[in-house]
Amino acid sequence: MATSRKKKAETVADETYGPLEAYCIWLNEFYKGLRKAGFNNDNALWLITSKEAYPDWISYGKPTEADIQRYLDEDED
Q1: pLDDT, tens digit, 9 for 90 and up, residues 17-73
Q2: What pLDDT shows up at residue 24?
Q3: How many other β-carbons are positioned within 10 Å of the β-carbon of residue 19?
Q4: What is the distance between the alpha carbons of residues 39 and 43, in angstroms, rounded to a whole number?
Q5: How far apart are CA 35 and CA 75, in angstroms?
Q6: What is the pTM of this model?
């Protein structure tokens, strides 16, 4: 019987996030928190797309149009 080989866990080499990536991570965590709190899928999606629903204590750098364009330009290379 063959022994199984252990795979190394894949890690991200660069763990610095730009403003757009940090915002996307925050949105994902917000969605997962809403789902865990008992919101159904439709309501959770509605809340994360509604800027008025964001809590007052949230402090994040909203991505600007230039950040988004710079991110899209990097993907094209």
Answers
A1: 887 888 888 889 999 999 999 999 999 999 888 877 777 776 656 667 887 788 777
A2: 86
A3: 17
A4: 6
A5: 31
A6: 0.54
Alpha-helical regions (H) of the chain:
19-36, 41-49, 65-76
CA 37 to chain centre: 18
Cβ contacts of 48 within 8 Å, gap of 6 or more = 27, 30, 31, 34
For 9, 26, 66, 77, the CA distances from 46, given in Å and listed in that order, are 35, 15, 26, 34
pLDDT at 44: 93
In angstroms, rounded to a whole number, what is the distance separating the alpha carbons of residues 52 and 24?
A: 17
Q: How far is CA 38 from CA 32, 42, 49, 55, in A?
A: 10, 12, 18, 18
Provide the pLDDT for residue 36: 97
